[in-house]
């Protein structure tokens, strides 16, 4: 999911989904992408507001290019590409799949139009029909759908960033009434863990991206992890206490970033309001804070006298949770974190860990183009766990590894504290 | 017309146009802008491919903002702005008219849509109706229309630059058949001038931008100026002779630019083809070369053993020509230079002179916001004379002063040689 | 030792050095710094060739500022600073010690002169006399000396980088005859380890930097680590096989770096020669390769069908080695890696590991200014183990953690391969 | 003299200096360069504080390279270069003289040392002996000396800029007592000129740089030029009146520069003090302001209701003045503008004109390497007239054309107002 783009390679694919299930998944995932794009004009779908982001149109086409390239081209004799020129436009970063347009030039593609991209999707979906029942294709299709779900999340965060640049503050969706919970003063709860040897990583059952495995043992010391995510209210206290002005709270690179970029609050904050996919709204203090960088998460934990969890700690605790629980994406709309009476480990926002994104022991990249995938991003990034309000429900797992550079914060990113016991 | 944007301030406005004429001009100029934008999608009209350029949508709105701000707001009691937020978006660089969006953020405005901008134009045009017969408004209206004509030219050159970025090479218009003239081998002709004291600058009759005056005398030495513009064929010879590889032909800043940017041909050239508003086409060798920078024009003149004319030389010779002659813009379409049997001083492309864009003697900037205009651009730029295939016919004059930085070349810019006698 | 700079914080200092030993260490470490600077002119000592590096003069003064600030100022009543202005110049990055000069402006300090800096050293050394016998000072002095040893290494690598910029290729020292070993064809040897639970990190006996502890258990899988460092000959084979031209071998950030910087060989290589502190010399193929980035080390390991070791693997194997063995710095001179018949884990060059530089479990930063130290660098960097030919012998340990960004390579950095068993 | 470097080509050299005079000039000019460098340490002489500037050592060697390359190499059979490597280091920008070091890498040349450069000078001076009496060499020697005088001025302004970067504020020379004149309230005086046809440009008698000719006629309108230079007191009033905060006073490029660079005062100003070659001193309000850019000069003139003179106006008025008068450089020392009871047109500081640096009519660049010279700088720069306190007396003339980019201000640059009559 990176360089704000993409990612992942299926495990050998003993994914035991029935044929009907594959077709059902295919149709519902593909439909969700288009539902997310429904309120976009052709011009909206063309915008690219920074190099980390991509146009909505590009996400819609790139995920389709994946099925066309790795399934239709390989498995359907005589399949004719929708357009011979488009692979150059919609390949992302697969060096082995040939030349491609510079990342930052994606925002200059007024053609093809959004309508043409939708037609491209229909063309590919129709051609995919026969493959949906083919067990030999199930693994790659599962990969393609997981890949598309990643882009569904990016489509939302990228268009949010683009619309935020517009002084008119356009709303993509109508605002939704939000129930406020009376949570203030709720006691901080910690989930304790006695440490010892734990197993983490994907166990090979069902789909997972390559980097999630192999499963392996890790030795942990006793620790506790907070049951709830850090909230806007707590972040306001951090700001009020001069959190952004005390160099000793910050990593050296983080402090340089704060000064260079003039950072003083999470992305999208302005006074007591924040920008959402429904335009500018008042912030709810009881809602988990989001759109923070690793640097900010780490400084907050320092300030709070705690630390960020490491990946294995988070995963050990989450083993008991339902990864499909919590505030995740069920349908297109103005997603946002919400206050929860019974907090889940999943949902609302991705949670920064103190673990660098590096290979699990005995990790091996897959062969061939699909194998260019996740291994190549293993320097300089940190792992995030959980799922966010923009993650399609069903996409994530306890062993799921999201990863971003420590300064990036246009995703729905937040934090949960940890401490030694 | 600058920083790729705009420009100009009317002389005190003794413009003796009849009332009906004003209304007629207003309607035809305004209609031409919309005709030029007719083949654009909303997404096309949103693109900004470099800081020098602006989105088509922005040109359409900014020229309308001019009439709303300097005429409707001042002269129509109770006039209600179409939108209170839009001035922030569509002011260009008028410091005295308040804050405005960063130039390079213009390309992130997917909203308002092209359709909304067209509605804005209709709203303002309707409100302007009563003013078109008001003699007191004639001067400012003439200024607004000349201003809009400048943006009509920029709209064409800016969208050309934006579409050029697209690897698909989209055509905005269908290609047009072009008559080829049998011109090869035609003798080079020189227009000779004996020098002496000549008068240049605007004489106060009819509309002109402020920087075109005052009229004043200049002492010239005998010189000659070539009757024809330099052609693609001649430019090919310059390239074949290693013109882009010989540092001694180039100005120091020009040579640094050639190396830094890897320049080896005019903008839009690729092999024997060039990019046009009708997509990629074969170049006609007999057609005047265009899309060259001042640096390139100067190096070519060095190579040819000649020099560029100075502004006063060009203007002295052009005094006898009809400024409405030659290949200029009559209607929306895929404009391009053409070969001419009887070359005109006007039309085809703007011609670089060796004169810096500086004030004429006794030039004074006008007071007030409209007066921020042309004077402020008087450092670092060079004067171009004539008119191009994208200039609305009737817009230019012998004393007209177009100006750009020496590295800029996305306008229809070419050259005509001069020599001492 | 970072941002190419500095340093570390002592464990609580139960350093059981006798008083005489402290004084002896102090004098020999301090003398070595000056011996390293002996061949430098005032101008040499002023050079700063990139932001990562510092002038030699600055290293000499900054290490002295440490003793003046944390020992003399605190412990010697009435001590008068050598100069009240110098702390601003020679503080490195201690936010709590007040303002300091911009890193990259260090190279503009022609004043104070090298001679004045040497006088500063003498002044501080004289004042330090009484403290060398004070057991309460022993911990901080050990820290100051370890800190100075780090800068002794940086002084050598920074001046090497600076002289390399000079087209004259100046030699700092006369070349030394080097014994060539007949090693070609020697069988690659692997040191095998059966994995299981191992203890790593500093055990609290003797001096260590804060980040080296606490000691803790880690669970390892069976692995092997190569007995020898990768050599110039092997690196030549990597280049000959197109190693720098195959994107699939590289991390994504690494490939971007290769293309952006035009990288095609280790730093300081040119043809069959390389630049050394004795000027340009022919490379010896049997000598360990050095001056490579993490990106290069990782790509080489990919190409070789192996991987880099993780920190705990390296440390577990090194527990049995003498950290004072191998090719390390004994006296000032033109240090370089050498071929060894019986390779040591220490010496010749620092070895990249696949482990990010992150805190050991239960790591806590020390309080106060000295505590700003190592924790703040824990994002984006990788751990290197061992010691180099420029490391003062006695400085390093198995638990020692050197760290640099993955693109940096002006240190003596090389690699040792690892593989799963 | 450009890109803060150099420049100039002799007129065909009918310079009627007697042989003894040539030798005398040679020795005194060469001696002055070394006197200016006398207070510099080797490290001082190595500093390069920005790309526009060069190390003192470089100036001393480059001017010597000129004599070695264009005279000794051509005219002395068997002359052996002092070093074969040095031309690569000390060529400035002569494309035809082969490769050369990147401009900004000049500051990394700790070797050769200042002493070696001085030895180089002695070697060349000795070899030049026989040529000083050769009439055929007189023209080129005059050029070389004029060239060296330009670098003498640059040596002073470049080292001033470099020492200014040092927080210690080092003084190169001891401060000099300065007589203060009681000038406050002195009436502003204007020198009036009735306009008409005037001749400007070099008339061919004696040495001049190529760009100063040919002499030609220009038609002027009546104007006046202020007898005195603008003072620090007047500049304080400009600041107090918000001069740096009013966009309408500024050229568009100038306003962008003010905001980008955070400009609010002349270079070297801090409160009521300014940095000089004798360190930090209180400013004298009656002394001409200096170290201002064209942008600032133009904005001041706007604010004062006046304008800058054009080159021909200044030159027409200066025809009656002695170019060797005023405050110019007679010997090495801490030069600065001074208050003058009877102001001269020459001396104190170079004066910005409103004229772009473009060729005089019928200007032709000389052939060969020396001819690369001045013509290549003719875009984007403005002409300055007069002479400064750092200009060797005897170097300048009424027709002398100094030129810099409009944002540059590390030279001794000031202004004199003009107005229409």
Automatic annotation (TrEMBL), chains A, B, C, D:
Keywords tagged on the record: Iron, Oxidoreductase
Location of the Sulfatase-modifying factor enzyme-like domain: 189-419
Recorded superkingdom: Bacteria
Pathway: Amino-acid biosynthesis; ergothioneine biosynthesis
A Pfam entry, by short name: DinB_2
Domain spans labelled DinB-like: 27-134
InterPro entries: CTDL_fold, DinB-like, EgtB, Sulfatase_Mod_Factor_Kinase, SUMF_dom, SUMF_sf
Entry-linked NCBIfam families: egtB_TIGR03440
Designated name of the protein: Ergothioneine biosynthesis protein EgtB
